[in-house]
Amino acid sequence: MKPIKIGLLGLGTVGTGVVRLVEGHQDDLSNQVGSPISISQILVKDRSKSRNIPIDASKLTEDPWEIVRNPDIDVIVEVMGGIELTKDYILEALERGKHIVTANKDLMALHGREILEKARDKGCDVLYEASVAGGIPIIRTLIEGFSSDRITKIMGIVNGTTNYILTKMSQEGVAYADVLKEAQTLGYAEADPTSDVEGLDAARKMTILSTLGFRTDVALEHVKVKGISAVSQEDIQYAKRLGYEVKLLGIAERQDDLISVSVEPTMVKTSHPIASVNGVFNAVYVHGEAVGETMFYGAGAGELPTATSVVADLVAVVKNMKLGVNGRQSQLSYNVTKLKTDEQIASKFFLLLHVEDRAGVLAQIAQVFSDCEVSIESVMQPSTPNQSSTEIIIITHQASKAAMNNVLKAFESSSAVRKVKSVYRVEG
Amino acid sequence: MKPIKIGLLGLGTVGTGVVRLVEGHQDDLSNQVGSPISISQILVKDRSKSRNIPIDASKLTEDPWEIVRNPDIDVIVEVMGGIELTKDYILEALERGKHIVTANKDLMALHGREILEKARDKGCDVLYEASVAGGIPIIRTLIEGFSSDRITKIMGIVNGTTNYILTKMSQEGVAYADVLKEAQTLGYAEADPTSDVEGLDAARKMTILSTLGFRTDVALEHVKVKGISAVSQEDIQYAKRLGYEVKLLGIAERQDDLISVSVEPTMVKTSHPIASVNGVFNAVYVHGEAVGETMFYGAGAGELPTATSVVADLVAVVKNMKLGVNGRQSQLSYNVTKLKTDEQIASKFFLLLHVEDRAGVLAQIAQVFSDCEVSIESVMQPSTPNQSSTEIIIITHQASKAAMNNVLKAFESSSAVRKVKSVYRVEG
């Protein structure tokens, strides 16, 4: 049988994994799709560089256009990363009738709609399972597994770097800066960790998940983002005492036709299944009106886990080719995007306050909450001997973000509160 | 647009959920598939019975053949249960070119191959996501999500009744018989609970999961089954002291081309993600060569969770109808089934022994293990004052089942061991 020919853009970590899987599992793959799959051409930055895997040098090229315009190639597997240039290659490949498998979250978060529309017009597939949560097949789960349900909430630990850092801080009591340095040494964090630790990477993934889950176009600018660089050991220790873990959660919610999406460090009740997702693992918790609570757990990154998703997409594309139905299964959003206002976004909150050490302070603080119509679930006053300022921890009942902002504003001019040390959303 | 017509066999818990979802989510569904979905005829046992949901009485029939032979019906949704008669209806429906969505694990575990072959010959779809782990889309995950990988292990908590019982026994210290009675009152256990508590229900589900995961036909008689009726409070308490939970696990393993499948109460290390799956929840843990560890968690049963999977399958069938590709996506196994012998099945083991209270007993026992080439990881001798017989707990290193059977046989004639109180497989 005529082999299906693949053009591979990128031979970094994931690209190498794709070559390994396609070659190592050739029998299993051709049993499933009915013909051999052959990687015909590979884009690399430097043809002369030595590689971890045996590669026929004649397949390597440094010119992406050579692959994109190669008439023999049926499917482009894009694992090179990048946004604007990469988009050009992909649009050109689609123009020429090639199908796309990509692991590129940045590209899909920013230009997903344009690419999917082009694919539909050209009768091509664009699949991107590997773009979110590496080895966890969460994208096909949202598209197919829950096609019958109305998803109301998606919570994701979708960035392994920050989850590794927070896990270490929680389990070993090490300070943020020290764990970050260690993560960089181990290769779990980039030299410039900003995109991970400030939540941008997670925000891009939440853009993709919420677009699929709510069947509405969510843009990156719709996502409220806060990273973990301000999370202190003190916050984590208080969280643990109260039965919470601090996790960087992507949270997407829908009520009727209103949605909200955020990425923020969150206190998660230890009994919630997502609280025990540790280290570099990822997990996506999905709540549907009918299905209730579900969670999907696995490796979020890494050569072979990510390659598993890429090659599973490749199998799906090739099956569609055999059936002649490419470009007809992808799902464009059909709901209008309406964002919740701060009045409509509600959660519990955790506050750590530095307050004056004198009688009547707690009453004064409670009055502020009451004036702003935020009701308090619990108050804890840890003992701090030999200090004139003392700490108060407050956990609220469900309150709107707007009401909580009013509380914080009132504290600015309150004689009782010296400083609001931290504010967290609370889940679970 | 012409509506797609559904014949629903069964209007019990799941059938009612299917009606609710199809009617409640009609807009979402037709947005996805491009035409309305209409439930045209419903098989019930008693037409005159009153229902929880408004149903047009003219749609009800007590004659299954009327639905199966109705030329207007495109898809049969089978949620009536039963095996031999139900198989006849389904084969007849396939013969007439109707597609099938079923939640029937018993049918698929026993006659899956025959039904799928018939479907392939007739160009029809047979989808059965709801047959295992209710709302968790584990079947499409195994078929599609991990199509690129070689799955080496599947561990499942796939029976909610037994997981509820074991969770209660662990968390509240209640005896097996008392929890079972309570579960029956709450409707979590059947009046005759045999199929659940003796592991048969789980075994049928593991037959389906291992067939898909290993791409080889696994039959029910290949599954070694042991239920939970002999699990004592004592076992659970010792497990907890050593850092384990007792769970009824389905365990399917593959090494090269050899497989083994079992259902048995297992001691699971509390740090393993499946150890904290509690109550009626289900979870399936999947290990793949490339993807590593993954886990899928959710409701295993219930009206709406199960209906979610049924209707998601329905959406897939209707999409295939629109594309004209029914009957071409299902996957028949292509690997030859080779079972591991007891010499090839290996795990750690937990043993609780009643032994003589005299010097030299431990040495004598250790000698038995050594003679049988089973090495010991740890020994615990809980103090039991005022008793002539005393207890010893042993956890072994990895050992073959055959070697462990030799140990147990040697204990029968040992003067040191009064009784082997319990033996568990250990995981995690």
TrEMBL record, chains A, B:
Keyword annotations: Amino-acid biosynthesis, Metal-binding, Methionine biosynthesis, NAD, NADP, Oxidoreductase, Sodium, Threonine biosynthesis
InterPro entries in alphabetical order: ACT-like_dom_sf (IPR045865), ACT_dom (IPR002912), Asp/hSer_DH_NAD-bd (IPR005106), HDH (IPR016204), HDH_cat (IPR001342), HDH_CS (IPR019811), NAD(P)-bd_dom_sf (IPR036291)
Positions annotated to bind NADPH: 105
Binding residue positions for L-homoserine: 190
Enzyme class: oxidoreductase
Domain of life: Bacteria
Binding residue positions for NADP(+): 9-16
Domain ACT: 350-425
SUPFAM superfamilies, alphabetized: ACT-like, Glyceraldehyde-3-phosphate dehydrogenase-like, C-terminal domain, NAD(P)-binding Rossmann-fold domains
Pfam families to which the protein is assigned, alphabetical: Homoserine_dh, NAD_binding_3
Catalysed reactions, semicolon-separated: L-homoserine + NADP(+) = L-aspartate 4-semialdehyde + NADPH + H(+)
Pathway in which this enzyme or protein is active: Amino-acid biosynthesis; L-threonine biosynthesis; L-threonine from L-aspartate: step 3/5; Amino-acid biosynthesis; L-methionine biosynthesis via de novo pathway; L-homoserine from L-aspartate: step 3/3
Cofactor(s) needed: a metal cation
Active-site annotation: 205 (proton donor)
Record-level Gene Ontology MF annotations: homoserine dehydrogenase activity; metal ion binding; NADP binding
Any single biological process term in GO: threonine biosynthetic process
EC identifiers of the protein: 1.1.1.3
Similarity comment: Belongs to the homoserine dehydrogenase family.
Protein name: Homoserine dehydrogenase
Source organism: Cohnella terricola
